[in-house]
Specification:
This protein is α/β, with parallel strands linked by helices. The chain contains 12 helices and 35 strands. The strands form 6 sheets. Strands 13, 15, 17, 18, 20, 21, 23, 25, 27, 29, 31, 34 and 35 form a 13-stranded mixed β-sheet that branches. The protein is flat, with a radius of gyration of 37 Å.
């Protein structure tokens, strides 16, 4: 407390605490600095100015301390954002950890961190409304702060210390970790309770923290502290007298924060989960390891299930348990909803909603958008060509012949003898017994063929070719293997690497190979974005039409109200005239014309009211029709959002491998690109492995990590 009796001195900024912890200054120097700056409003800035003016801390170290404070504030706010979103059921734990990990990488690269709420919105993991709700609960603005707020002595908040560059890491690394209760953005105002001891209670009331001032009475007994806490209402989860006395006797620098009371957090219980009774990880893409080995996961035909088979069921979670705060008050647990079923073709929910059942005999799977589906088997005898017409079915297609010129085939798992000059789309695997030539292929599974010639292949899994790939373009999120054949004059982008027996040039020039990069996912996300924008525009146009209709209906309703009031006035006047008995015969004759006019006006008003009523009913039908039209695009948009989220998660769970293995010969001029570097074969070489690896630069004074394509014999 300052000499003027103010409580300005009761608040110690985090920069001061870090300076003592890092041993840039002593505890006595910090107290002297606080006394000198106690009259200043901006205590953080005044402390930094004092440290520099008194030559206590170098400008470089002041900057490092400032960056560390900012990093802690940002990370704790973001960590708290994820915790609230998790508690509200907006995201699951893996999504939260993924977003925080991505932000860590931004810190490591020295970039301005993107708020995880924005990243989650863009990835379709949460809605804008959900993000803003969490920010409101945090009492945060909708912008990530560039400057740290002024934290008080409540700060030892290094839960999951963020990566913030070497300078800040040097400081954060030496700071004692504290529990999540001490998070910066949840700390309440500091108050002095007795004998130079400060009390802080976080906003969640799950702990009470004590801090000592320099003028604290060292002989204060534990019972006095207990009594002071009781006067503040803190009665639950108190530390023992022995621990309180240890805190009293400890040096100030070693006892910046002492948790004197701890509540019991409410337990949300175990979420309801879904248990599956079929292989849900049907797409296990392969890859090339450091030794040139390739592991392709060809599962073969998926097992079929019979109609009525249970595909999945809910596994009940545990009941939420209430908690208790340090004031002894019960805290109700948030009862979160568990996972929910989403069913697609060939599946249905059971009557009690606890199981998913197959409605047809077929192969079960989970689609990229998260639907549980069962696809029937469809056998087509003979060939498919332009005369057959397009084959578009949501089931597995087995063609005993070939898919010939001009044909278009859309199915789930598709198999045939040969594909030539046609287009094939498979939501699963494409298996061709012989070759693919002059064709366009899209598959969300793996592609298997003897050869590929002058074709375009885009697939989510692996491309496995036995003999050759010639003059073709391949894009896959898995690996590309021609381990017993040739790759000639083709362009290949394979996230998990490439293995070939021979890579050579043909009439179209040398081969170009890109490994480690996920071209398929990039393409899919762009398609997803374009389709989502189209649906949003469609929904917006429907909504605009509905707004116009509702305004028109509101106008007619207002008109009906006015007509009804006019009708009532006419009726009142009409009854008033008719009820008069004191009129002479001449006067009554003169009023008959007026009564006739009133009757005509009344009839006209009623006619207009009927017309308005009919128009309102017609507009209501139009509005209902538009609402029905919006339902389809809205459902499709929801599926696209889920698909985008699942695709991003799947892609991040399988990091790319920038490796090429050639068992035979690679011809000069072949271009191989990794994520960060490029290799061009200057001469013909045999039996080599090419891999992108990080290395240190030759600059001894400023050594940096760079990436190079390295070539090894094997």
């Amino acid at each position: 407390m300052g000499e003027d009796g103010s409580k300005q001195g009761n608040t110690v900024p985090l920069i001061g605490i870090l300076a003592v912890k890092k041993e840039f200054i002593s505890e006595e120097q910090l107290q002297k600095a606080l006394a000198h700056c106690s009259a200043d409003n901006d205590l953080d800035e005044q402390l930094k100015a004092y440290f520099l003016a008194e030559n206590l801390i170098s400008p470089q170290n002041v900057h490092r301390l400032t960056m560390a404070v900012k990093a802690v504030v940002i990370h704790q706010q973001e960590y708290r954002f994820g915790a609230i979103a998790l508690a509200r059921g907006f995201v699951n734990k893996s999504v939260m950890e993924l977003a925080l990990e991505e932000q860590k990488e931004q810190f490591k690269k020295g970039k301005k961190p993107r708020r995880i709420g924005d990243a989650m919105v863009e990835a379709g993991m949460i809605t804008i409304k959900q993000r803003d709700e969490v920010l409101t609960l945090q009492h945060r603005s909708f912008k990530l702060p560039d400057v740290a707020s002024k934290p008080s002595l409540n700060t030892e908040p290094f839960v999951n210390k963020p990566s913030v560059g070497q300078d800040a890491q040097d400081i954060l690394g030496n700071c004692q970790e504290a529990d999540d209760e001490t998070s910066l953005d949840r700390m309440a105002q500091v108050v002095e309770i007795c004998g130079g001891i400060l009390l802080q209670v976080p906003c969640d009331r799950q702990s009470a923290l004590l801090t000592k001032l320099c003028d604290m009475d060292p002989d204060i007994p534990a019972v006095v502290i207990r009594t002071a806490l009781a006067e503040k209402g803190i009665v639950f989860g108190l530390a023992s007298d022995g621990k309180i006395e240890d805190f009293i006797r400890s040096p100030i620098s070693d006892s910046l924060l002492f948790r004197v009371a701890k509540g019991i957090k409410p337990s949300p219980g175990k979420d309801t989960q879904i248990g599956f009774f079929f292989n849900t990880d049907y797409l296990k893409i392969g890859g090339i390891d450091d030794f040139g080995n390739i592991d392709f996961k060809h599962w073969g035909p998926r097992p079929l299930v019979e109609k009525g088979t249970v595909l999945a069921s809910k596994i009940a979670g545990s009941t939420p348990q209430p908690g208790k705060d340090v004031f002894g008050k019960t805290i109700l647990a948030i009862d979160k909803e568990g996972e929910t079923f989403r069913v697609g073709t060939g599946a249905v929910l059971s009557e009690d909603g606890q199981k998913v059942l197959a409605t047809v005999k077929g192969a079960p799977r989970i689609t990229l958008s998260g639907l549980i589906a069962v696809h029937e088997e469809s056998d087509i005898n003979g060939d498919i060509d332009k005369d057959t017409g397009p084959v578009e079915v949501d089931c597995n297609i087995r063609v005993t012949g070939s898919i010939k010129s001009g044909a278009r085939v859309y199915g789930v798992d598709v198999s045939a003898q040969e594909v030539s000059n046609s287009r094939v789309e498979a939501n699963g695997d494409l298996t061709i017994a012989r070759g693919i030539s002059e064709a366009r292929v899209y598959a969300r599974g793996n592609v298997y063929a003897q050869s590929i010639t002058n074709s375009e292949i885009v697939c989510m899994g692996d491309v496995f070719v036995k003999k050759e790939i010639v003059d073709s373009t391949i894009e896959c999120s898995g690996a590309c293997s021609i381990n017993t054949g040739l790759l000639i004059s083709s362009r290949v982008a394979a996230k998990m690497g490439l293995m070939a027996h021979t890579i050579s040039s043909g009439t179209a020039g040398p081969a170009e190979i890109k490994v480690g990069h996920d071209a398929f996912t990039d393409r899919e996300l762009e398609k997803n974005r374009a389709e989502t924008n189209r649906l949003e525009a469609l929904i917006h146009n429907f909504s605009k039409k509905n707004d116009v209709i509702r305004r028109q209906a509101a106008g007619f309703k207002k008109q009906m109200t006015e007509l009804d009031r006019a009708r009532e006035r006419i009726l009142v006047k009409y009854r008033e005239i008719e009820s008069r008995s004191d009129l002479s015969l001449g006067d009554r004759d003169s009023l008959d014309g007026h009564l006739t006019e009133l009757r005509n006006n009344l009839k006209a008003a009623e006619t207009k009211m009927k017309t308005c009523g009919a128009k309102i009913r017609d507009l209501a039908k139009q509005s209902a029709k538009i609402d029905l039209q919006i339902t389809g695009p809205t459902a499709l948009k929801k599926a696209l959002v889920d698909e985008k989220k699942n695709l991003i998660r799947w892609s991040r769970q399988t990091p790319g491998r920038s490796r090429v293995v050639v068992d035979g010969e690679i011809e000069s001029g072949t271009v191989i690109k990794g994520l960060h570097s490029t290799f061009v074969a200057a001469a013909d070489q045999c039996h080599i492995r090419i891999a992108e690896r990080p290395v240190k630069s030759d600059d001894k004074e400023d050594a940096q990590i760079i990436y190079q394509m390295q070539v090894d014999d094997f």
